[in-house]
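Checklist before submission:
- one chain only
- standard amino acids only
- sequence pasted in full

Submission:
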Amino acid sequence: MNMEMTLEEKIKRVAAIIDEALTVQKINPVYIPTAYFKPENLGFPTPRDVFRILRESGAMKMRCWWGYDIVEEGKKQRFVKTDADEPQNDDDFEVYEIEVDERKLRQFVVNKRVSANDVEFDSQNGVIFFGRITHAFQRGREEQLRLKLFQILWDRKKVIRGGKARPKGELFPASAVAVQLGFLEDPRAFSKNTTAKDKLDNLLKNTERTLQAKKLPIRLYQKGGIQIIVNI
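Returned file contents:
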């Protein structure tokens, strides 16, 4: 847990989680499980001061509810609130209902405007920005591996604009990536280590699948090396 995060970094982290919920749920207010704001997910002890600042700025209003999810026709998931102030059964969980002023919130998410022709990666806070789309890497082990993967590869990415690569970037050896991710210790053993190769392959596939679902123009190339490709 990073106890040394500045208040600005904490605000940016919380705002990115709320902004991502807006993108995914496509409703306002959004419903976010309180567990998302626990220390192990945020990287700092409590969001209390951040919530206060966002409320006082007019970026959001929030309430807390208990309830449960139902799956409607078309497999659409919806949260159903209860009037109780505690769980009534094993399916109940606690959420924040957050009504958002999107313009004010996004002033906290990014320090500069990110256009639809730019993809930005905030390595420190673990957030990808593309126009109005954001993706915040969470604090679970799998998500932290994805964040580490981006931190390794981002500076060597290839950006394709109008069919031309600008810049072309550079491939990163798969063995070196696997070592930095902790899948093995000796890069020379990578070619014969099927466990490490499978872990890396699954991580790349699952990460790209997640980014595609968010409609981010990012691909993970894996042939003779690994590279992030941004095609805009």
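Reviewer check: The chain has two domains: 7-135, 140-231.
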